Structure formats: C-alpha cells, structure tokens
Amino acid sequence: MTGIVTEPVGESGRYRVGVDVGGTKIEAVLVDGGTAIRASHRVPARRGGDNVVEDVVGLVRTVAGESVDRLAGVGIGTPGQVDSTAGTVSHVVNLDIDTLALGPEVSARLGGVPVRVENDVNAAALGAAQLVPGAKGTGAVVMVNFGTGLAAGIIVDGVLQHGFSGAAGEIGHIPLDPNRFDCPCGQRGCLETVCSGASVQRLWPVDGPAMPDLIAQAHAGRADAVRVLGIVSHAMGDALQIVAQTVDPRVIIIGGGMAKTGEPLIEVMSEELYRRERECPFLQGLHVADRLRLAPMDQPIGALGAALVI
Ligand SMILES: [Zn+2]
C-alpha cells in the first residue's frame, strides 16, 4: 500500500505518522485514530544525519498528503541509543550517525508537530502486539527481536516498559553463553554473540540467510550443523527463559530478521524448551513454548508501532 490519503482527516487531527528508520530502508505509515494503516511508503536509507532527517520529513509529507499540517504527531523508531525525552539518537553505526537531534529537527521542519523518538525494537514490539492474535489487551506481552542484535520490547497493559535508564529488555548483553565469545560491548559470552542474526551468520557463513540453511543441514544430519545449531538454540532457550521468568508475558512474539525463518525457527526454540522441561517440573508448568508466536513479517510493524508511541 503506497500513496496519498483519499479520506480527508477530521478536524480532530487524530491521524498519526509512524516512521521506521532501518539500516537499509526507511518506511512510513499513516495511521488513523485507531490502528488502521491508511497509507504507507518506503525509501532506501541514506547515510548521515542530514539525509535521515530529510528522508523522514519527505516520507511524512508523502503519506500524510494534505493532512500534514493537522497531524496529531509523528513517532520515529530508530536503531541506536535513544533518549526519548530529548528526542535524540546516538551511535547509529549503520547510518554514520554519532548524535542526532532527530525529534527536534523533524518537528521544526514540519511546523512544530509533536515528534517522539523511540528505540526501534520497542516500536516494533508495539506494532507486532497489535497484529499478533492474542497479544492485544491487558497483561504483559514481550517481543524478542532476533535481528542484527538481540533485544526485547516489553509491553504491560499496552504501555512500553523502559525501566529506569531505558535499558529494560536489553537481554542481548547478558553474558551467559558457555562458549564465551567476545562481545563488542566489552563483555564475553553475551547472548547476542550467539543467537542474533549477525552472530548466526558468523557461526554458519552461507550466502543468504544462515538460519534456514543451518536448520535444514542439521535436520539432514550434518555434524557441524548439529553442533552449531546446538550452540545457537541453547542461547535462544536462555533468552526465552529470561523473558518468561522475569516478565512472565502471556505472549512471546519472535521478531527481527531471523523471524523470516518462519515455523522451523519456532520448532527449534520449542524443542530446546521441551528438552529443558524434561529435566525441570517447574519449567514444565510454565508452558513457555506454547506462548511463542511469529511476528507478522509481511506487515510494517516497526512503522505501525512508531505511530502508536505518539
Ligand atoms: Zn555484549
């Protein structure tokens, strides 16, 4: 769905725009007073803060059309270290951004419309929770994002949980893995060094996505694939247990690029959890595998969720 709004926005100005800033593309959606997407558009990402601001502003104008002056707000999900209060983002390595006052700059170029900047995983969690069956409503829902890195977005009663310093859900840098690979964060054995998309690609280097091939080769009985999949699935099991036993969410959404693996990924995770359950009646009672759901990878969950943070 791409293009200009056909339905005129009401005087209430209740329409919002959500923008998902990614390493390869920037995507925007126009969302009505509920959660329905009325228009969407995407462009390839360009590096550098000025280009990112220009592209975000351009996308907002494109999807909002003539409603751009009456928007209730713009939400932006971005990788990097986000200060939602100041609207700034730092250390977006993929886009050559050191520090950028993304919120204030976009707001200034759109006539002062309210802009809120949010961590991309958190925004995607909000969007996915709208679309995954059984994830909407009261209680806790978590999306574990197996993307380039590993992090979780925690939602309680429909509200994102940031914690005291904004680090709630940063499970990727919990050092648990017995293989103890070095992590760029300075620690060793972080979960992210084993079960993020980037690390699986490193452990199982193939052309194209590594996880589907790794699973297929392991199922075919290739010994090295069985060994690597064992390492990866062990770390995935740790990540899921951390989420289940700290937040105890009703639904655990599996998101990020690795979710494109589809059901075989859920099967690998479930098998790991069942293996642990056989040795632990406590874990057996939690039914963690039953709570796993795939994020809808054909939907713009990052942009939709960004629209909902405003
Ligand atoms: Zn780390």
TrEMBL record:
UniProt keyword annotations, A-Z: Kinase, Transferase
Gene Ontology molecular function: kinase activity
Keyword Cytoplasm among record annotations: no
Signal peptide: none
Family matches, as Pfam families: ROK
Keyword Transferase: yes
InterPro entries: ATPase_NBD, ROK
Family: Belongs to the ROK (NagC/XylR) family.
Protein name per the record: Sugar kinase, ROK family
Organism annotation: Bifidobacterium myosotis
